[in-house]
Amino acid sequence: MRQPAERGNVSSIQLVSTYVLIGSLWLIVFNQVLDLVVRNVNTLNILTTLGNLGFVIVTGWFMYRLSLRTQRNSDLSRTQDLALLEKECYLLREKVFQQSDELFHLQGILQRKSSTNPNSSEAGSTDRISVNGSHQPNPQAVQELQHAIANREFILEYQPIVMLNHGNRIIGFEALVRWQHPHKGLIMPGDFIPFAEETDLIVPLGEWVLEEACRQNERWRQQFPGYENLMVSVNLSSKQFNQPDLVNQIAAVLEKTGLPPSCLKLEITETAIMQDAETAIAMLTKLHNMGVKLSIDDFGTGYSSLSYLYRFPVDSLKVDRSFISRIDHDGEQVELVRTILTLAWNLGLSTIAEGIENPKQMAQLRALHCECGQGFFFSKPLSRQAVDQLLSDQIDRL
């Protein structure tokens, strides 16, 4: 793309060199002739001065014309470069939408063939039930959940997120909430999160999860040398994401806990974003400008966001576990994941695969150049104390 301009520069240098050489020879010969022909000293000085002045004038005119030519060449080269850049952007946009169409097609195949993965790292009921087994909220269940939030009956476990092509080094953790019920024992999120969302109790619960996760991650950053950039991922529900004061809430939590914004990643589902895409773009932009990292969670399970994807100021895509579950033996699954990863690469986004449970899945994802992953193959969700030991062991091995 730059070659024509370079050839123009070489030609200009050659012209200048040739002109200076010829002009210098001309002056030498001219002055020698004047010395031989003109005997009057005053006349000789006048003619010599006029000859030198003429050379200067001609040189100035020549350099002016040469600069105009160089400027025209430069403007032409810049115009050609801009035109080529616009063409490349257009081709990239077309490629993204072509891959989006392919993803839609493959996704339809997957939805017809997919089945529930019984080995999900978030074990628990996948049905939307409340804590008492009912599908509908009832006053007793609401009161029970309100009491649990007020009395901090919840705990966080942390599942490691690793870099697949760098020795599975831990780069962060996803914070996962559990309900430590005083009578029913440990309740997994699938058994109370849907109920919390239906009753809007997900908002105060989510606020507690965010603050606790940030506080704990800052402790690990300070405690373990070499993990200053450790990141914690926190899931935001659609109701949390749609709060008008969300940015202020997050800023307050970061200030209170001391965690740098770059060490917090917020995971938002496609469904939450696409409820109102334009409003979502505005909210994501504010969060992005704070320095917080953003990820689209469960990517590929929705059908509407691909045409908006290039407009979302997000940092990464998280490939849903349903796409990873059969990647080690299903060719259609492989092609689907390949399409998602290529789409992310074209948009400059990093990728995380969740639900990795065996070495074949990990090897396949490495071959597809997926950057990060999490799942039972690396570790189940861990208590705070278990993470302390894990990070300490990793530092000892470095």
Explain how this protein is built.
This protein is an alpha/beta fold and 398 residues long. Helices cover 57% and strands 14% of the residues. It is built from 13 helices and nine strands. An eight-stranded mixed beta barrel has the order 1-2-4-5-6-7-8-9, surrounded by four helices. Helix 12 links the parallel strand 8 and strand 9. Helix 1 (3-37) packs antiparallel against helix 2 (41-113), helix 2 packs antiparallel against helix 11 (331-346) and helix 5 (202-223) packs parallel to helix 7. It is elongated, with a radius of gyration of 34 Å. Residues 1-10, 110-121 and 123-135 have low confidence and may be disordered.
Quickly list its features:
single chain, 398 residues, eight-stranded mixed β-barrel, 13 helices, 14% strand, disordered N terminus
Topology pattern, helix = H, strand = E:
HHHEEEHHEHHEHHEEHHEHEH
Total helices: the number is: 13
Sheet-strand content, in percent, reads 5-15%
What gyration radius follows from the Cα positions, in whole Å? 34 Å
As a percent range, the share of helical residues equals 55-70%
Q: Give the CA-CA distance, first to last residue.
A: 46 Å
Major β-sheet strand ordering = 1-2-4-5-6-7-8-9
Compute the number of strand runs: 9
Mean pLDDT: 79
Specify the oligomeric state: single chain
Give the biggest beta sheet. Answer: 8 strands, mixed, barrel
Question: In brief, what are we looking at here?
Answer:
By secondary structure, this protein is an alpha/beta fold. The chain contains 13 helices and 9 strands.
